[in-house]
Design brief:
Strands 8-7-9-10-6-11-12-13-14 form a nine-stranded mixed sheet, with helices on both faces. It has a seven-stranded mixed sheet with strand order 17-18-16-15-19-22-23. It is globular, with a radius of gyration of 26 Å. It folds into three domains: 6-37; 67-274, 3-Layer(aba) Sandwich (Rossmann fold); 279-451, Ribosomal Protein S5, domain 2 (2-Layer Sandwich), CATH 3.30.230.10. Helices cover 27% and strands 26% of the residues. Helix 8 (328-342) packs across helix 9 (367-379) and helix 9 packs parallel to helix 12. It has helices spanning 74-80, 100-113, 127-136, 152-162, 187-204, 225-229, 276-280, 328-342, 367-379, 405-414, 424-427, 443-451, and strands spanning 6-10, 16-17, 33-37, 68-69, 84-85, 89-94, 118-122, 144-148, 166-170, 207-212, 232-237, 244-252, 260-266, 269-272, 291-298, 301-313, 321-324, 349-355, 387-389, 392-393, 399-400, 419-423, 436-440. By secondary structure, the chain is α/β, with parallel strands linked by helices.
Length: 452
C-alpha cells in the first residue's frame, strides 16, 4: 500500500510544514511539531461564485452595542464582562474534574428557567451520566436538551434543525469531521471543528460554549490557534484538594480580562462566593509572627489575602528560598532590597513565603506585605491582627503608590480591620477613611514600625 501523505503542524500557532523541525519558524517554540495526515476536503463540483467585498470607511459604520444575556450566575457574568454576548464563541478550559461541566450545566439550568432553548452536546458521557449530574445540581426539567454525539456533521445538522439559543460542546477534543483524515483531538480536527462552530455562532447568532481539555503545562490542548479563533477564553483554576475554584478570563473581546469569579465546590454543585476576602481569611492565626493580611485587586474586585513568611537560620551553604502563591523571583528581589537598603542580614537564612488559601497573586501591590511578613518572622514580632498592608517596593527601597487604593481600604474597613499600612502617596489622596492610615515612603520606615 502506498503511504499516505503527511504534514507537520505546530501545536502552538498552527504553522504547517512539509518536514519536521526542532523549532517552529513562525512562533519560535521548540518541539511543538506533530505529524498528521493531509486533510482531504470534499469540494463541490459547482463553480464557487464569490462576491467581491468593498472597503467601507470607518465613519460610515454604525456601532451597535452587544446584546447581552444574564446567565443567572453573577460570578460568571462578571468574568464575561456583564453577561453572555449573543453569537459569541466561548472556550472554557481547566484541569480534569475541576468543575467545567458542572458550571456550564448550572448555567444551562438557569437559562432554561428563563425559557431559553439549550442544546448540550456531550462526546464524553452517556445520557444516564449527564442525567445523574443534572439531578445532583437540581435540574428537573425545562428546555434543556441533551445530545450525545461526536460527529461534527451530525451536530451541525442538529443545531440547524433545533435552532437553540445556547449550545454547549463537551468537549472540543472529542469532536471529529468525516472530511478530515485524522484522529479526534488532533490539530486538524480541533481546528476544523472550531472553524465550523465559529461559522454557526456568527452566522446564526447562536452563543456556543466549548469545553477544552488542558495539557500538563496548564494550557488548552490542541493548536494555540484555537484560542485565537474564539471570542473569549476562560480558565477554571483551583487545587483539587481545596474547596474553592477561580474562573479567570485570559481573553475577552467583549470585556475586561482582569475579572475573576470565585466558586466553592459542594455536594450540590458550585456555589458562588460573594465575599472572597472573608472566605480567604477563614482560619487565619492570631498573634503569630510572619502572618499578616494584604489587600490585592483582581480586576475591579478587592480581595484580602493572608501572606505568611517563615525565616530561619540555614544548615546548608546555600540558603533555601521557596514561594507559593506569588512570584519566586520577586521574593528573592525583595529580600535583596531588605539586605541592601535596610541592613537586614538574610543571606544565611532560609525563607519560605506563602499566600494562604492557594490563590496566586502576582501584582506588585503585594510587595510591601511580603517585606513586612519577612521582617515579622525574622524579628519574631507579630503584627496587629487588625492591620492590612499593601504597596509596591522599588529597588532603592522606596514604597510606590498602587492603583485603586480607596477600594482596598474600603474592603479592609468592611471586614473590620482598624489599621492600614500603605504608600504615603496613596494616603495623601484618600479623603475619608473609617480606619487608621499609616503612610510609609520606604522600607526603613517599615523596619522602624516593627521596633515599636
Amino acid at each position: 500500500m502506498a503511504k499516505g501523505k503527511t504534514v507537520f503542524f505546530c501545536r502552538e500557532c498552527g504553522y504547517e510544514s512539509g518536514k519536521w523541525a526542532g523549532q517552529c519558524p513562525a512562533c519560535r517554540q521548540w518541539n511543538t511539531f506533530t505529524e498528521e495526515p493531509v486533510a482531504k476536503v470534499k469540494r463541490s463540483k459547482k463553480t464557487d461564485l464569490r462576491v467581491v467585498s468593498e472597503p467601507i470607511s470607518i465613519a460610515d459604520i454604525e456601532a451597535e452595542e452587544e446584546t447581552r444575556l444574564c446567565s443567572g450566575i453573577e460570578e460568571l457574568d462578571r468574568v464575561l464582562g456583564g453577561g453572555i454576548v449573543k453569537g459569541s464563541l466561548v472556550l472554557v478550559g481547566g484541569d480534569p474534574g475541576i468543575g467545567k461541566s458542572t458550571l456550564l450545566l448550572q448555567m444551562c439550568r438557569e437559562l432554561a428557567g428563563m425559557e431559553k432553548k439549550i442544546l448540550y452536546v456531550s462526546g464524553e458521557e452517556s445520557l444516564s451520566q449527564i442525567s445523574m449530574r443534572a439531578k445532583r445540581i437540581g435540574i428537573t426539567g425545562g428546555r434543556l436538551y441533551i445530545l450525545c454525539e461526536t460527529n461534527l456533521e451530525l451536530i451541525e445538522e442538529a443545531i440547524h434543525k433545533f435552532s437553540p439559543d445556547i449550545v454547549v460542546i463537551d468537549s472540543i477534543q472529542t469532536m471529529y469531521s468525516d472530511e478530515i483524515e485524522a484522529a479526534p483531538g488532533s490539530v486538524s480536527q480541533v481546528r476544523e471543528a472550531t472553524g465550523v462552530l465559529m461559522k454557526i455562532a456568527k452566522g446564526e447568532g447562536i452563543t456556543i460554549f466549548i469545553i477544552g481539555h488542558v495539557t500538563k503545562e496548564g494550557v488548552v490542548a490542541g493548536p494555540r490557534v484555537l484560542e485565537h479563533m474564539v471570542d473569549t477564553v476562560l480558565y477554571f483554576e483551583g487545587d483539587n484538594t481545596a474547596a474553592y475554584r477561580i474562573l479567570r478570563a485570559v481573553k475577552n473581546r467583549f470585556g475586561s480580562t482582569n475579572e475573576i469569579g470565585v466558586f466553592e465546590m459542594q455536594g450540590t454543585g458550585l456555589v458562588q462566593v460573594k465575599n472572597p476576602s472573608e472566605y480567604m481569611l477563614k482560619g487565619r492565626p492570631e498573634g503569630e509572627a510572619g502572618s499578616l493580611v494584604a489587600a490585592s485587586i483582581e480586576g475591579t474586585r478587592p480581595i484580602l489575602v493572608e501572606v505568611q513568611a517563615l525565616v530561619c537560620r540555614t544548615n546548608f551553604n546555600m540558603p533555601r528560598r521557596t514561594a507559593a502563591g506569588t512570584d519566586y523571583n520577586r521574593v528573592n528581589l525583595l529580600m535583596a532590597v531588605l539586605e541592601k537598603r535596610a541592613g537586614i542580614q538574610l543571606s544565611d537564612c532560609d525563607a519560605y513565603v506563602n499566600v494562604a488559601g492557594g490563590i496566586k497573586v502576582v501584582e506588585p501591590a503585594l510587595d510591601l506585605a511580603v517585606v513586612t511578613a519577612i521582617l515579622s518572622s525574622f524579628k519574631n514580632i507579630a503584627l496587629d491582627n487588625k492591620t492590612v498592608v499593601f504597596g509596591e517596593v522599588g529597588l532603592t527601597g522606596e514604597v510606590r503608590a498602587v492603583n485603586m487604593a480607596e477600594q482596598r481600604v474600603a474592603e479592609a474597613s468592611k471586614l473590620g480591620f482598624e489599621c492600614c499600612i500603605l504608600p504615603q502617596a496613596n494616603k495623601e489622596h484618600i479623603k475619608r477613611s473609617n480606619i487608621k492610615l499609616i503612610g510609609v515612603n520606604n522600607i526603613q520606615e517599615i523596619v522602624a514600625l516593627m521596633r515599636r
